[in-house]
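Milestone M4 deliverable, item 7.
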Amino acid sequence: MKRKTSVSHDEAMVRRLRKDPGFAAEYLKAALEDDDEPRALLIALRHLAHAQGIARVAKAAGIERESLYRALSVHGNPRLSTLVAVTRAIGLKLTVEAA
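Output delivered:
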């Protein structure tokens, strides 16, 4: 009997984001609300960019592809302008509300 190969959490998330665009907004919103893990936003943006294609997102955001990879990497520290450009490129926007 052949076993199914397991899929990493990152790959599973990217697949879900590709299949369900409505889920993307909720996923990004949940990442913004995560007070315990400040890197959650960066992880969510990385998943969203991979789901839509890094090259396409980079072009739409006006950022070099390599720079986008670096900014969204595990050790990345993107500027606010990069975050805003990427969220716009994926069809979303960052918002703020009273706590």
